[in-house]
Amino acid sequence: MLSLDRLTVRYGAVTAVHDVSFELASGEVLALVGANGAGKSSILKGILGIALGSGGISLAGKRVDGLTTHLRVGQGIALSPEGRHVFNAMSVEENLDLGALNATREDVDQRKRDMFELFPRLDERRNQRAGSMSGGEQQMLAIARALMSKPKVLMLDEPTLGLAPIIVEQLIDLLGVLKQRGLAILLAEQNAEMALEAADRACVIELGRIVRQADSAALRNDPAIREAYLGM
Ligand code: ATP
């Protein structure tokens, strides 16, 4: 569904991502794991065109790297950003509306019904100000807002940051449901334990490069990965 061919991302003279290539299928979760500053967010930003660089990006076999961010979203790539960035002063429902700016009224209503079914917590709180919700609820809202664009590829940047373990477990369950719906999910996570539990495969990122790419189970059992990323 998503294919990267030597993606490079630069901030002025600084190259944050070097020649990153991978494939992500529908119904698959691929994790990007690595330390602070390794370049995980920059890969997601490069895919969406928020950060500039070079390399091929294909979605369902069609090149999208020449498109603006807006058009890439329209083609089916969505991002739930690090730090959630929900619109605090707006209600849950208004936040969801903003995730589907291109859709018809009918489609928006249908997608919201779907989101409220998937996230009963948001249904209960649909008129509540987003800024007054808990961290976990805001994270769910950020994901639901991303899903409102009906993406084929859902990218999540540090979704577990600051969340209680029980909410992290709920998030892992949610990814399982979205996988079954056929979404391709790209998960950037510093929490390698969570990432390797939730993902089918993972890329280990160091200094902007993929240094390992393997099944999550293989990485979980690898002594070097356990020591460096799982604190064991
Ligand atoms: P974190 O988990 O801390 O967000 P990360 O793996 O997502 O880390 P990035 O945020 O992608 O890492 O950062 C990769 C590198 O790019 C870092 O050296 C960072 O300082 C640099 N960088 C990121 N954004 C910018 C920017 N807007 N301008 C200049 N350099 C940047």
What would the average pLDDT be, to the nearest integer? 93
Strand-and-helix sequence, N→C?
A: EEEHEEHEHHHHEHEHEEHH
Spatial strand arrangement across the major sheet: 6-7-8-3-9-10
> How is the biggest beta sheet arranged?
6 strands, mixed
- Could you say which structural class the secondary elements and strand pairing correspond to? alpha/beta
Which spans have pLDDT < 50 for at least 5 consecutive residues?
none
Q: Quick one: how many beta strands?
A: 10
- Global Rg: 17 Å
Report the portion of residues in β strands: 25-35%
- What small molecules does this complex bind? adenosine-5'-triphosphate
Please count the helical segments: 10
Which shape, going by the Cα principal axes? globular
Helix content: 25-40%
Distance between the termini: 34 Å
Short description:
This protein is an alpha/beta fold. Helices cover 39% and strands 27% of the residues. Bound molecules: adenosine-5'-triphosphate.
Structural commentary:
With 232 residues, the chain is α/β, with parallel strands linked by helices. It has helices at residues 40-48, 69-75, 92-98, 105-118, 120-124, 135-147, 165-180, 192-198, 216-220, 223-229; strands at 2-11, 14-24, 29-33, 53-59, 62-63, 77-80, 153-157, 184-189, 201-206, 209-215. The chain has a six-stranded mixed beta sheet with strand order 6-7-8-3-9-10, with helices on both faces. The chain has a four-stranded antiparallel beta sheet with strand order 2-1-4-5, with helices on one face. The protein is globular, with a radius of gyration of 17 Å. It starts with a strand and ends with a helix. Bound molecules: adenosine-5'-triphosphate. The site of adenosine-5'-triphosphate (ATP) has 13 residues, from strand 2 and helix 1.
